[in-house]
Amino acid sequence: MKKLEQIRQESKEIKDKIDDTEERLRQLKNQEKKILKQDIVKKKERTHRLITRGAILESLIENAEELTDEEIKILLEEATKTKEFKETLKIMREN
């Protein structure tokens, strides 16, 4: 009789462990979904930012669509080396 009671107790403990493990798994799956959703939002925000900034760039450089990516890069590298650019950027970062 004692043996049966012991088996029941062990069975209950195992079931409790299974329940706890399943709950932890559910929590981890929810965390994963949340992280994946945040990643999607960040990617959308980045894409929007890149499109917006590209449009700004094209609006400021005459016939920018005729330039290659490498030529745009060279222009930006040169522009960012100027004293005026550096001073303006410093002021913007201080505010």
Question: What are the main properties of this structure?
Answer:
single chain; 95 residues; mainly alpha
Write the layout of secondary structure elements.
Elements: H1 2-60, H2 69-79, H3 83-94
The total strand number stands at: 0
Number of helices: 3
Strand content: under 5%
Topology pattern, helix = H, strand = E: HHH
Radius of gyration, CA atoms, in whole angstroms? 30 Å
Structural class: mainly alpha
User: What is the makeup of the main sheet?
Assistant: none
Average predicted local confidence, pLDDT:
95
Note the overall shape.
rod-shaped
Percentage of helical residues? over 70%
Low-confidence stretches: none
Termini, distance in Å?
80 Å
Protein model, in words:
With 95 residues, this protein is mainly α. 86% of the residues lie in helices and 0% in strands. The chain contains 3 helices and no strands. The longest helix is centred in the N-terminal third of the chain and has 59 residues. It is rod-shaped and about 90 Å long. The relative contact order is 0.04. The model has no long low-confidence stretch (mean pLDDT 95).
Summarize the structure.
It contains 3 helices and no strands. With 95 residues, it is mainly α.
